[in-house]
């Protein structure tokens, strides 16, 4: 087995485990992730001195079970990653296909939109929107979805340009297929493999951005157990109890790495090459 | 050539105008700014006073054109938190953000270019794949988290570096390294791709046939051609890094432009927020324009595009 296959398999395994952990969180979490117990604050993880088997990953500054919060946090990361990718994919793929297929003025407008989007400072604007509109899961998802469509648009546009002149498109045109039919039934399926790779990249980015926003206090509102928020809340205790930031940080790192490994493997398998 | 530059410059101006609208709309998303500024304990009278003092009682269109006209002349308004002109606030904090961005970029290039060359020279071998995986690992680490881990390990446990502030130049090391992380994978992949193309080209075959030493071929002949896109993308990356430094400035308590923005966002200081959004966008637009022009000058083939 080559390093490449191993890496792809590892990515699939990681994403699968996090997905199952998130889905089954209500059944496998040992405690209520929101239940506070001020008598049991900052208990270290089981493997450290003073740890207890009751709280395998310890408890946080409010005495909430860290493992349970971590499991529920997987739901938030995956939910935000998926929904942000769906939103941004819809926007970006629509724009990209239109620009790539019609060219000319339409393409000028699409290119202009992409240029404008890239000039807007991502984190700053996301923070501003969340601060001024109010922080909630929906606002974070929509904000990220409305900001992360640029790579979808760029890739959909270039790949559409490449398939536009191919014979099967000409055949569909000659057969009198409607434009909508050509775009959704002929163009889209043929550029989809490239877009799947972009989707993995954007999902990883959305998860990291949500964590950064929550870390800065302008993402998912407490007491939701976002991994970024757990790091922010643990920050004041990190000098004496480094595990409070290590556990959610490693979880984030492993999930994003898994998604990236999977995306890399897909890129090789689907033969999308360097175009993405 | 001139036509190309003019077209690019016109595009840049159009993008600036769009960003102007975006920055304005963003800060009006809360609905009524006067209420958010006044805070929860304000009376109706306080709110009315604030509304009048900041001109928030005027129609939105009037507010926008008033702001845009002043911004075009370099007057970005006054911060109500600092009671000072916003342009001055940004100028005061710019050196820290700029130092951070430039040193981050330097570190990123110093790491990414050699790794990219190495991966290209050993394309599709174990070395190439291992370097690719290292890049993926770097990409997967949240920057604020690397920052905190470095603070614990280098600042607290080993006490090699200061944990916050930039009283000495050592204070820049950790934040610059963390900032560099975000740019390394993209720059490395680009160097690798460029080098693979260059190494497969005819002039390299000629150089090899002439019997030049491999080291000389790679560094002098191939790198020179592969470096061009890297230089222009480096300019764009610098733009992204200046925008992204907000997270790192918050972690290391560096009082740069990003920190100013973060503070203003949490305190509803809208003149500062819209000004920083506009400022960072204009810097980015300027950098991409610069990159395009550098490319046009270096590569005559692009001028007709």
Shape of chain B: globular
Q: Could you tell me the radius of gyration of chain A in angstroms? A: 22 Å
**Shape summary of chain A:** elongated
Class derived from helix and strand content of chain B: mainly alpha
CATH homologous superfamily classification of chain A: MetI-like
Quaternary state, please?
Answer: heterodimer
Taking the alpha carbons of the first and last residues of chain B, their distance comes to: 9 Å
Q: Sheet with the most strands of chain B?
A: 2 strands, antiparallel
Number of DSSP E strands of chain A: 0
Q: Largest interface by residue count?
A: A-B, 46 and 52 residues
What order do the helices and strands of chain A follow?
A: HHHHHHHHHHH
Q: In CATH terms, what is the fold-level topology of chain A?
A: MetI-like fold
Average pLDDT number of chain A: 90
Enumerate how many helices of chain A there are, as a single number: 11
Query: How much beta of chain A, percentage-wise?
Result: under 5%
Strand order of the largest sheet of chain B: 1-2
| Biggest sheet overview of chain A | none
Give a description of the structure.
The complex is a heterodimer of chains A (276) and B (305). With 276 residues, chain A is mainly α. Chain A contains eleven helices and no strands. In chain A, α3 runs antiparallel to α9 and α9 runs antiparallel to α11. The longest helix of chain A has 37 residues. The mean pLDDT of chain A is 90. Chain B is mainly alpha-helical. In chain B, α6 runs antiparallel to α8, α7 crosses α8 and α9 crosses α10. Chain B is globular, with a radius of gyration of 24 Å. The model of chain B has no long low-confidence stretch (mean pLDDT 85). Chains A and B meet through α1, α4, α5, α9 and α11 of A and α1, α6, α7, α10 and α11 of B.
Short characterization:
The complex is a heterodimer of chains A (about 280) and B (about 300). Chain A has helices at about 5-25, 25-30, 65-100, 105-120, 120-135, 135-145, 150-165, 165-175, 180-215, 225-235, 245-270.
